[in-house]
Task: structure prediction
Amino acid sequence: MALNSINRLKDDLRNNYSQSSIAHLESATDVNVLLTFKEHKLLLIPEDKIELTNAYRKTVYRLIPESDERDYELNYLAFLNTFSSHTREIESQVIEFLSPLKNQGLKEFLFLAITIVNGRLLQMVEHFYENLEQYDQQAMEHEQLADFQSSTQNSLRGRLVDTLFAVSNLLNIFSKCQIANPDTDLKGLITDEEPEFLFQAIRRSANINSYQYALDKVSYGEWLVKSTACNDSKLIYKFELTDFNLEKARDLGLQRILADRFKGRQEKRWLRIVLENSILRAFDLAWDHYQNESSIFVSGTEKYDAGKKKLFALLDQLDAEDELLVGFNLTKSQVLSAYLSAVTLLAFTLAPELLKGKSSKGKYLFTCAKIPLKLIKNFLTTIEINGAEIVDATGLFISDLPLVQHLDLFKAPFVRDKTGIVYALDNFVFDNWPESVRVNLMRGGSIADQIGKGWERYVAYTMLNHDWEKVATGIKLKEKNKLITDIDLVAKKGDLLLIIQLKIYYGTGINQFEQWKFKNKLIHGVSQVKKAIEVIGLKKDILNHHFSKKELDEISVIKPVVMTNAHMFNGWKYDGVSIMSTGSLMQILNGAKVRFTNQNHEVISEKRYAKSDKLTTQEIVSFIDEPLDWRIGSPQIEIKYHHEIFSKSEMLFPTIQVNGLE
Result:
């Protein structure tokens, strides 16, 4: 179904006109129409859902014979009904809990909410390290230790993200129930005790996370509603994975990402050096601004030096993706402007964080600090790179309430109130900030095209520098002057020919919608390499513009692969074609060796997973099909069920478990 047709259906449904969608269901001859309705959550849009839901149910009975598949669709409808009624009920409860704040401004609300959340996050981290100490890590094998550390870090990350999602929901609900936005004090609401009503609101808001998470998983085809039951007036839903290896790939990929982040950057990125001077100037400006705002003077340099150290640590989050975005778009001022605007906002968030304890009003003033946007914009106009003035790109990182998506704050972690004042959300701002820049820049157009070509050149250059004989890029396969498909790279080494389709992902890594869109992009890449294999397998000389006859005659193994910069899909297969990351490619090029580190990130051993540094054709193919990350540590990965229990429902979520750790 074409995107413009879907958008027309959405517009009708938002206007509470369901007839066009009902007609579309009634005329459907293929079950893919049900998939489209799920993916775009069309059944949830109209206020009156009964007529549209009935049409969907009739289509299920008409197109799907009696089977488990039909039951899953009917279970999905039951879950949608529960989702709608229960989330509405929870939202009403949260609004009631927030009623003492309905006359307060956004600043007052943020101060109270973030103060509570900061305390909760600190407790989680402390609990995480207490749990770590319960295990005898010295007795573990090095591979088990690597597994253990990454799994526990992943568990902590999940809990932290859940808490921050709750704040996103809470902010949206607050924006709906707020009846005024005065510039007032908290009228006695600030106390040393947590306001119980707000703590309860956060807890209820977190319940909405679970429903939205399950809905996203089912909508995007990663889960199905395996069964429904009713016990003591409580509805019980059990979900099942549709693709175990996709979940395994994502889990291992996230563990790898976290492990790399905990180890820290081994070498400076050139982009960090480009940004260093500007972020230090911004920090000086922010340091003076917030001292003046609170009428304090900080003697000594201890806090200031700590700020510089933190800023450099934040710059260490920059990665190859960021350098390619900037390097291949040096003539496009908006790209570098986005990074400079982001690091300036970072400086104006960190400075008040460090100054909190230096003023009697500091805690209130500097929790979710007010961002002096005019001052920042004036500062940005003073920055020149290569003789060109940097333009203001701060708007990329500012959210207006209510949020369009419940994940928007991870892309734009600064919030604007009704009067135009912008506030920083402390915990959202610092966590891997370059992802926010990438996702805001990579929205199609010339920048997306150019970065795709840049990645092609990067991969080709890397392979040629690691003894691959020839790498051709931008291949157009034609028969009788008719284009069959485009292929990004064709790489030869000995008797092996890799057919590589490269797909680039720029997202936050936690957004189910973005992951679903990119998964579809990978599936399209699979169709491209499969077409290429069909042609090249029958007629290798179709590549004679890129390889000599002698080189083509040497080839006896042709391997298709879809490659991506995103590690979270590494090892997944679709329709028999392996998905691999550029990180996995580097592991192969570097001889399939792994360095194991202790808790202090000191290298304690090294293990080779191939016979020598020079991998054979068979080994290369094997490591593409089963990546190195899948071989490290225990291969015993199984599905366990996580119970989410609410007042009127219970949900059983399938989760990956490694070595007994969820």
